[in-house]
Amino acid sequence: MFVRTSGCNLRCTWCDTPYTSWNPEGAEMTVDDIVRRVRSYSCTHVVVTGGEPMIAPGMVDLTRALDELGLHVTVETAGTVYQPIACHLMSISPKLANSTPKEREGGRWAAQHDRLRYQPEVLRRLMAEYDHQFKFVVTHPADLGEIETLLTQTGAARNRVVLMAEGTSTDTIRLRAAWIADVCKREGFRYSPRLHIDLWGNERGR
Ligand code: SF4
């Protein structure tokens, strides 16, 4: 089950959930409302995602309540903000330079985005305190140098790295998948498909 918070401190140019970042929307819910909703399903795994869930008020209380229900909690974050949440898998997706919105909305978010998107101290703390993985959204082979720099600076393990093609169409993903899969085999990374795109396309609400 996905719990998706609305609101993000970044503005990735290719964000595939703009309704949580560029144009945030959604209903106001209390932590109790969310927990009640989660309990109404039989799922044992909950993914708390966004937007950026680590900036959402009540995240500590929410994740602790989900943990107390005995659920497996994964949190998807860009790794720019720390909170002492309860989490069984911290899925950290640091944003590379390919995400900077140089043109979108006249580029007015680009400087803030670049200032916030890479926070090595936060990454090191998350790595130290949580079971974790690093998921990188890649668009071009030139992204690999930036990933290597991040791994060196943070001490992240290569076998915790997952590469995923940027794209919301099966054609784009398939084109990128070919060389990304080769990189994964060569460098000891893992490859992530985009299953929801394969199954339903870039359609919201499925
Ligand atoms: S961090 Fe995630 S939610 Fe925020 S703008 Fe980037 S892709 Fe969108």
Quickly describe the structure.
The chain is an alpha/beta fold.
Model description:
This protein has a single domain (2-200), classed as TIM Barrel. Helix content is 35%, strand content 16%. It is built from seven helices and seven strands, in the order βαβαββααβαβαβα. It has helices spanning 31-39, 59-68, 110-116, 120-129, 143-154, 170-187, 195-200, and strands spanning 2-4, 45-49, 72-77, 89-92, 132-138, 161-165, 190-192.
Say what the CATH topology is.
TIM Barrel
What is the CATH domain class?
Alpha Beta
What is the CATH homology-level superfamily?
Aldolase class I
Q: How much of the polypeptide forms β-strand, as a percent range?
A: 15-25%
Number of helix segments?
Answer: 7
Number of domains: 1
Order of helices and strands: EHEHEEHHEHEHEH
The largest sheet is: 7 strands, parallel
Strand order of the largest sheet: 1-2-3-4-5-6-7
Regions with little confidence, pLDDT below 50 for 5+ residues: none
The molecules bound to the chains, other than polymers, are: iron/sulfur cluster
Assembly state: single chain
- How many distinct beta strands? 7
Describe the protein's topology:
Blueprint: E1 2-4, H1 31-39, E2 45-49, H2 59-68, E3 72-77, E4 89-92, H3 110-116, H4 120-129, E5 132-138, H5 143-154, E6 161-165, H6 170-187, E7 190-192, H7 195-200
The structure holds iron/sulfur cluster.
Iron/sulfur cluster is lined by residues 8, 10-12, 15, 17, 20-21, 50-52, 78, 95.
